[in-house]
Write a structure and sequence with these properties.
The longest helix has 41 residues. 60% of the residues lie in helices and 15% in strands. It is α+β, with helices and mostly antiparallel strands.
């Protein structure tokens, strides 16, 4: 009896020690709840406070923002020119005793400030540049600049909120869905037409005669050439049917940004097709036109004189102009016949990214259709490079270009984006050329695919197209939310009936579980789909299962005559192993779904992982803390379970 009392006293002391840490645990839980609510506030604001117009502003594409910034730079440059480009007057305070900025048009600043009226600006210009008199034009530029500054700030404000919300997938937000593939019949027709001219007997005879072939063997040689070309044609058809889908994927990724849809899905699918999903997009016909448009590959010379005039600090190691302020300024000063084009590189995920610009001459030196073939080859050290062949006419043109422009760069342009700009090392004759550099195998394969895209424009066919209306999406959201809410209500009722007030503790944990799942999704920028909602409901069920296991273990300990403190400690201790094992094995399943699956399957896996991790925290840590409050703070003698 004495031993039991000592044990009970020792455990109470241990309980007191736990309560001394209770404040810290409470702070942790309250902190997580507050953080979750703060993270979810932008999502609530976006979907329930903002109207349709405000959401459209927040969905403005980066291309449209860049256009606004360019227009702003043009007008700001008018003001700088009026100030005689005197940088001392680019930054002005309201007065010598004030810290309020009224003018800030420094080139290194992204956020310009024109917080002054035009009359004051006019007075400043009269002091700096007394000879200036075109104030009518300047006032127009001043007013436009203020409008652009306000518009850009508004867009950035809404986009900042949009970047922190839970995105909705196509099945919830509405939008367009395409499955595209290569039109194999049209592709075969294009290849046959291309080889038709190559297999012209008269042309082959003329070519052989020019090489002084023996007239006795001429006919035999012509037949050999035609037979070889026929074999090459069949092989080309077979190869293109397999590989051309990769070039289509590259083109679509290059073009899709103009729609301003950030949750796009572009992936290779079964049967050599590509699935494209554009949530929130309403204009199906515009998307269809852009996706199916055949791109053009061209070779254009870089304006090296303009590049040399660019300060070194505005260029990277490859001589690409990367300073955005200078780019916008340069666009207003381009000589006739020159255009600025963005240079693209593939990131580690294979997504094309704009890294800077190069000024190129508008004149097309060589059309991509002159390319016969392109492939990845290897030098003696094993490094990859790109080799490509030109037809006879292309070879002559290329020889003339390379002879006249040794030391200059020749830009390879696809859809007005520079894919590569190799330096011409020497005159290239014979129609065989190489592009060398520090290429990885993936980069070399991508560039060779781009060159083949020029040699053979791939015809695209829409295999499937579907429009999901926003009304349907709204209905599905409501149904999904209603299903989740109904699931929680039923869980609360069952737990209350079966476990009484302990069931309320478990139900509170499930509400927090839902809060943490949504908060983590918002923080990660995840996309919520119908399978994601199903995964949330499944997670709630598993959370309830965890609490059922805990409550049953506690009841078993109480039946054996244990005290409340001992029953809680032993109940949680024995239940934790079971809960941990079941959650971890299911998390592994979720990881496999997230890694191997795609689209909605991947989304299901991601939400499942988040939910189960949150469940371990709420079902074990939070419910135990609530029990501890009642047992050690309020000193209850009996648990309602």
């Amino acid at each position: 009896m004495l031993l039991e009392n000592l044990r009970e006293k020792r455990f109470i002391n241990r309980g007191g020690y736990n309560m001394s840490n209770g404040f810290l645990r409470g702070i942790i839980i309250i902190g997580f709840i507050a953080l979750g609510l703060a993270i979810l506030y932008p999502t609530y604001k976006w979907y329930y406070v903002f109207n349709e117009t405000e959401r459209e502003i927040g969905s403005t594409s980066q291309k449209e923002v860049n256009n606004l910034i360019e227009e702003l730079e043009i007008n700001i440059n008018q003001i700088r020119n009026a100030l005689k480009n005197n940088s001392e007057f680019y930054y002005i305070l309201e007065s010598s005793k004030s810290s309020k900025v009224v003018l800030d048009i420094r080139p290194e600043k992204r956020d310009y400030n024109l917080n002054l009226d035009f009359e004051r600006l006019k007075n400043i210009i009269n002091k700096v540049n007394p000879d200036y008199n075109d104030f009518k034009s300047l006032e127009e530029s001043f007013n436009k600049s203020k409008q652009y500054i306000a518009k850009i700030a508004e867009i950035e404000s809404y986009r900042g909120i949009r970047n922190r919300i839970i995105k909705l997938g196509l099945d919830l937000a509405g939008g367009v869905h395409f499955v595209v593939g290569v039109d194999k019949d049209e592709l075969k027709k294009i290849i046959e037409e291309k080889y038709m001219s190559l297999m012209d007997k008269n042309k082959i005879i003329d070519e052989l005669k020019a090489k002084n072939y023996d007239p006795k063997t001429l006919a035999q040689e012509v037949d050999k050439r035609i037979e070889k070309l026929l074999e090459e044609k069949e092989k080309r058809v077979e190869t293109e049917e397999k590989e051309s889908i990769d070039r289509v994927l590259l083109k679509i990724r290059n073009r899709i940004d103009q729609f301003g849809v950030s949750e796009t899905v572009i992936r290779k699918s079964a049967n050599n097709t590509i699935t494209i999903e554009l949530p929130g997009l309403k204009n199906k016909d515009a998307a269809k036109e852009v996706i199916t448009k055949v791109g053009r590959l061209t070779f254009q010379l870089v304006n090296e004189d303009l590049v040399k005039k660019t300060p070194l600090e505005y260029k990277d190691a490859k001589g690409i102009i990367v300073n955005k302020e200078y780019i916008y300024k340069l666009k207003t000063e381009l000589p006739d016949g020159t255009v600025l084009l963005w240079v693209q590189e593939q990131d580690k995920f294979g997504i094309p990214r704009d890294i800077g610009v190069l000024p190129v001459f508008k004149k097309v030196e060589l059309d991509g259709e002159r390319i016969k073939d392109a492939r990845v080859e290897y030098d003696p050290t094993g490094l990859p490079y790109i080799g490509f062949d030109l037809d006879s006419e292309g070879a002559d043109i290329f020889a003339a270009i390379t002879k006249a422009n040794v030391g200059n760069r020749l830009a390879i342009v696809l859809d007005d984006k520079i894919q590569s700009a190799p330096v011409i090392q020497t005159q290239i004759t014979g129609g065989r050329a190489q592009i060398t550099g520090s290429f990885s195998l993936e980069e070399a394969q991508t560039l060779s695919a781009i060159l083949r895209a020029g040699s053979l424009p791939v015809p695209i066919r829409i295999e499937e197209e579907r429009v999901v209306g926003p009304t349907l999406g709204k209905d599905q959201i409501e149904q999904g939310l209603n299903a989740s809410i109904l699931a929680i209500i039923l869980v609360v009722l069952v737990m209350l009936v079966y476990y009484k007030w302990s069931g309320l503790n478990a139900s509170f944990a499930q509400v927090l579980n839902l809060l943490f799942i949504l908060a983590v999704m918002a923080q990660l920028g995840s996309t919520l789909t119908l399978p994601g909602i199903a995964s949330i409901v499944l997670t709630i069920g598993m959370g309830v299962d965890a609490n059922v296991i805990i409550n049953e273990r506690i009841k078993e300990e109480l039946r054996e005559g244990k005290g409340i403190e001992s029953a809680l400690r032993l109940g949680y201790s024995s239940a934790f192993r079971t809960i941990f094992d079941s959650n971890i094995t299911t998390i592994f399943s979720g990881i496999i779904l997230a890694l191997i699956g795609s689209g909605s399957v991947k989304g299901f896996g991601v939400v499942l992982i988040i939910g189960l991790l949150a469940n371990l925290f709420t079902a074990v840590f939070i419910t135990r803390f609530i029990y501890d409050i009642f047992v050690y703070k309020f000193r209850i003698k009996k648990i309602s379970i």
